[in-house]
Amino acid sequence: MSLKNISIHDTAIVASNTIGRDTRIWAFVNILKGAVIGENCNICDHCFIEDEVVIGNNVTLKCGIYVWNGVTIEDDVFLGPNVVFTNNIRPRSKQYKPLSLTLISKGASIGANSTILSGITIGKYAMTGIASVVTRSIPDYALVYGNPAKFKGWIDEEGQNLIHEKEGLWRSNSNKYFEEVNGILKPKI
């Protein structure tokens, strides 16, 4: 690992040699050897990242987040303080089962204290409210919250609520249009 343009606090334990430029790693962080971390990330105090984790570029992990094997976090994701990941639906002590794979897609935002069940996908630019318990996959551009987290509406890339124009057509405040087909929202090209 080239330490050029990487900031690592003196109390951090960083065994990975795959950390991108301009990434900041704060106090009491522990990153295991096989972890892959992209460029321009901000990993705040008291985070733990296991061996088989992949984190993209421009990702923010606020304080107190443990990212277990089987979790992939794509570019531009925000994880609020104390987000909880799981990686085994039926854990038992000293019984090692195949891990469920969890994907946090590009641009998603996960609210503070949210719990993410293993084996799900959180879609592009989706958002969970604080303390949400996410037990199933979330589509792109969806806003969910609660326990269990439920769909509450559609949002754009900036997290603003979309305005319903007519059947199957939604608009953002910046006049970008989205089409909804079979419960899936996509930008209208």
Topology:
Elements: E1 7-8, E2 13-14, E3 24-25, E4 30-31, E5 36-37, E6 42-43, E7 48-49, E8 54-55, E9 60-61, E10 66-67, E11 71-73, E12 78-79, E13 84-85, E14 102-104, E15 109-110, E16 115-116, E17 121-122, E18 127-128, E19 133-134, E20 142-145, E21 150-154, E22 163-166, E23 169-171, E24 177-181, E25 184-187
Strand order of the largest sheet: 1-3-6-9-12-15-18-20-21
Order of helices and strands: EEEEEEEEEEEEEEEEEEEEEEEEE
User: What is the C-alpha radius of gyration, as a whole number of Å?
Assistant: 17 Å
Treating each run of at least 4 consecutive H or I residues as one helix, how many helices? 0
Q: Which range best describes the helical content: under 10%, 10-25%, 25-40%, 40-55%, 55-70% or over 70%? A: under 10%
Mean pLDDT reading: 95
Q: Shape, please?
A: globular
At the first level of CATH, the class is: Mainly Beta
Largest sheet: 9 strands, mixed
The percentage of residues in β strands lies in: 25-35%
Classify the fold: give the CATH topology.
Answer: UDP N-Acetylglucosamine Acyltransferase, domain 1
Give the helix/strand class.
mainly beta
Low-confidence stretches: none
- Total beta strands: 25
